[in-house]
Amino acid sequence: MTRQEAGLSARRNAWREARRKAVAEVGGQDARLLPLVTVAPYAILAVLTAVTLAAKHGSPGALLVDLALCAATALWMLWMFTLHPQWWARPAVMGVFFTGLVLLTGALVVREAWFGFLTPACYFYAFGILPWPGRLAGVAAAALVAGDAQSAGIPKDDATGWTAFAAVLVVNVVCMCGFAWWEWTTETRGQERDAALAQVREANQRLKATLDDNAGLHRQLLARAREAGVLDERQRMAREIHDTLAQGLIGIITQLQAAEQSGDIPDRWRAHFAAATRMARESLAEARRSVDALRPEQLETAELGDALAGVADRWSVLHGVAVRVTTTGAARPMRPETELALLRAAQEALANVARHARASSVALTLGYLDGEIALDVHDDGCGFGTPAPPPQPGGGGFGLKAMRERIEGLSGTLRVESAPGAGTTVSARVPHPAAEAAA
Prior knowledge:
Blueprint: H1 3-25, H2 35-38, H3 40-55, H4 60-82, H5 91-111, H6 119-129, H7 134-150, H8 159-261, H9 266-291, H10 297-301, H11 304-319, E1 322-328, H12 336-357, E2 361-368, E3 372-379, H13 399-408, E4 413-418, E5 424-431, H14 434-438
Helix pairs in contact: 3-4, 4-5, 5-6, 5-7, 6-7, 7-8, 8-9, 11-12, 12-13
């Protein structure tokens, strides 16, 4: 390929690209109608030129003028429109082009009426390249030229002729401008509909993105909920094991050691052995109920005050320490988890007394106050200073932590007060609003 051919090919490609962009930008018109402004005007003008050649071949002077006007019209369309598609999106340039085309067409119509058949090309350009409201003025101008061609045979030597001439012009202008108005309103509504559909599509895309985000967050929440559920269950099982199996095993070991030390006294040996056996059975039953997440047997058969009294009696018999149980206020129903937390707190407090306090008596008080339930366990043992001493072997240090988790999990508070030689008091407070009591 020579340099000249390469340059020609590049210009051709550039022209095609400019034409493609112009088609996409000009007035929002349908690209399928593009031949009406790029091919049809030349075809119409060629036919009319041939007709002129056939009709005026005997009048060379008039024929030459008509051919000059036809050539000027063709060159005007070629240069101002066809060869420069990048100008199509420039309203000012297209206005100049259309004005020149209408003037040339008008001059041809003045010379010969059959050039009125060129006015459809003017309409094509008016609807295809002129934006609103310039399109309305262009259509009116083309309609005047068409009306002039249509009324060429009407004599204009009297009022009747001029009236008929004016009527033809008015009919052309009104009909074509009315059609242009209807076409513009239809186009505007179509654009509004397209814009609304685009907004709906965008809203749907945003909604889909939001739903996808929500689905992702939902999956994360489910994963975290499962993790939290597993952790809560582990903590529950740890508390239940400590409050049932661990305490039961400690008691069994204590009774077996006592039985071993009283081996020479059959009655005491049998009593300690029976106590160990009973505690093993109770611990096994409580372990099974804990695994099944059931309430302790004490709360299944009695109210909280009676259940605390039963726990205190069994503990007193087992450890030989007197326990005084007192209930104050009017007893009222409460949530099962509240009863369980207070029962386990009392059991843990008594277990700590048995392990650490060396007490001679214990006072356990359950109080039904106006807005809360209070549980106090006080012993007259050796007490401890602040900070508390480290847990003894076998205690594990988990009891107070588990007790605090249970109470604080119900929006309650747990306090431990002690002093060397002054005993220890464990106080648990759990909210008990009137609405909860009614429930």
